[in-house]
Amino acid sequence: MFFVSEEFLRSYEAGGEVNQTVDEAVPEGQSLFAGKYKSKADAKEAKRALKPPTP
What we know:
By secondary structure, the chain is an all-alpha fold. It contains three helices and no strands.
């Protein structure tokens, strides 16, 4: 999810030129964040694997 400024939204709604900066901040093919990451699903699965089974 991305949030935009009111200025960006007004320009977009008016049909004006809109400059996006995500491609400037993160070059193509690179990650937005550095390091190892787990998805929420992977984290839940690992947590379930550690939990003892209920009888």
